[in-house]
């Protein structure tokens, strides 16, 4: 009689054990497959795990892990003790320009070697022209305007920049949640893979219209637009009181440059920059005319690659070097 009663229990144990072993095997196989560092979603997942930490400031959600480094998408990313990409910085020299770039993963240089990023290209161009200008890269993945302005005011004011350049991307107006994900998404590549596939399937079914998305995002009464505008206004007020030059550098969405449909975003930001006292530069002309494979980091990842970063730096230099 006892054996009959135990049979369902034993069966359940076998089922659970088999399921756990199968999931462990699947996780191992997924990790082996992703060791090539060519899966964008997994590499972004690793970026969040290895180079980001939760922020004590709820507006920011997360920050870079200071003094850390990781090889992501086959590229080494170093984070210094201020949370900036690159070397540690020295004490600011009197009279020397220090230009701080604020932005998202596009500014950070996702998928681009440190020496080939826009900011390092600019540093080299200034040096080649005998100009001792220091360029700092404060780009962080999954940041919008509210976040990178807040981070500057909360953590980077002590850097004492003479210039602040907002490297603006069209989706910097989006409202971002604190995130963090559930325990499976934080620790399992298999879970991330399944979650990504589910999102792609929903996207294919719903066929999202990016033009409509941006049109809604840049309505003056949208929450994201108002929050972005308020953050830029706060930074402008800070810059006025601290004698800091401000620039808004408009980076286009490079997913579809051939038939670019988002010029209304650029015009909106040009008008806003003029209202708030930012010098405005549009990078669209310097990036148009190139096929995706020429300027994307890799297929499926429309971040600007090293060539695109070089083009951006070459476009920015003659404009920013003349502003004194």
- The CATH architecture of the largest domain comes to 3-Layer(aba) Sandwich
Strand order across the largest sheet = 6-5-7-8-9
Low-confidence stretches: 181-185, 194-207
What value does the average pLDDT take? 86
How would you name the CATH homologous superfamily of the largest domain? SGNH hydrolase
In the CATH scheme, what's the topology name of the largest domain?
Rossmann fold
Q: Output the helix-strand order.
A: HHEEEEEHHEHEHHHHEHEHHEEH
Q: Tell me roughly what share of residues is in helical segments.
A: 40-55%
**Rg:** 23 Å
Strand content: 5-15%
Assembly type of the chains comes to: single chain
Number of helices: 13
Which secondary-structure class do the elements indicate? alpha/beta
Could you explain how this protein is built, in words?
With 324 residues, the protein is α/β, with parallel strands linked by helices. It has two domains: 1-35; 89-320, SGNH hydrolase (Rossmann fold, 3-Layer(aba) Sandwich). It has 13 helices and eleven strands. It has helices spanning 2-33, 40-51, 105-108, 118-128, 145-156, 183-187, 189-206, 210-217, 223-241, 263-276, 284-287, 292-295, 306-320, and strands at residues 52-54, 62-64, 68-72, 75-79, 98-102, 134-137, 163-168, 245-250, 279-282, 296-298, 301-304. Strands 6-5-7-8-9 form a five-stranded parallel sheet. The protein has a two-stranded antiparallel ribbon with strand order 1-2. Helix 1 (2-33) crosses helix 7 (189-206), helix 4 (118-128) packs across helix 13 and helix 5 packs parallel to helix 9 (223-241). The protein is globular and about 80 Å long. The termini are far apart. Residues 181-185 and 194-207 have low confidence and may be disordered.
């Amino acid at each position: 009689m006892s054996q009959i009663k135990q049979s369902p229990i034993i069966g359940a144990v076998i089922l659970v054990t088999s399921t756990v072993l199968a999931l462990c095997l699947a996780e191992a196989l997924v990790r082996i497959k992703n060791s090539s560092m060519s899966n964008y979603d997994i590499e972004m997942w690793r970026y969040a795990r290895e180079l980001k930490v939760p922020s004590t400031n709820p507006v920011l959600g997360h920050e870079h892990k200071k003094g850390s480094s990781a090889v992501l998408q086959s590229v080494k990313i170093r984070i210094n003790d201020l949370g900036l990409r690159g070397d540690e910085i020295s004490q600011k020299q009197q009279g020397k320009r220090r230009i701080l770039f604020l932005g998202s993963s596009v500014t950070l240089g996702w998928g681009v070697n440190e020496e080939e990023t826009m900011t390092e290209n600019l540093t080299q161009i200034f040096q080649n022209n005998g100009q001792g200008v220091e360029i700092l890269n404060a780009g962080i993945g999954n940041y919008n305007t509210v976040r990178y302005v807040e981070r500057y005011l909360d953590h980077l004011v002590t850097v004492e920049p003479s210039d602040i350049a907002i490297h603006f991307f069209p989706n910097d107006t989006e409202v971002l949640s604190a995130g963090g994900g559930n325990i499976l998404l934080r620790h399992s590549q298999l879970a991330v893979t399944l979650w990504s596939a589910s999102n792609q399937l929903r996207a294919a079914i719903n066929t999202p219209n990016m033009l409509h998305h941006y049109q809604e995002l840049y309505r003056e009464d949208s929450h994201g637009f108002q929050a972005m505008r308020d953050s830029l206004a706060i930074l402008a007020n800070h810059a006025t009181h601290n004698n800091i030059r401000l620039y808004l550098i408009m980076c286009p969405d490079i997913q579809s440059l051939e038939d670019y449909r988002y010029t209304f975003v650029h015009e909106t930001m040009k008008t806003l920059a003029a209202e708030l006292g930012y010098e405005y530069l549009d990078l669209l002309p310097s990036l148009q005319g190139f096929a995706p494979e020429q300027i994307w980091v890799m297929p499926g990842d429309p971040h600007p690659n090293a060539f695109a970063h070089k083009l951006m730096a070459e476009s920015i230099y003659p404009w920013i070097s003349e502003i004194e």
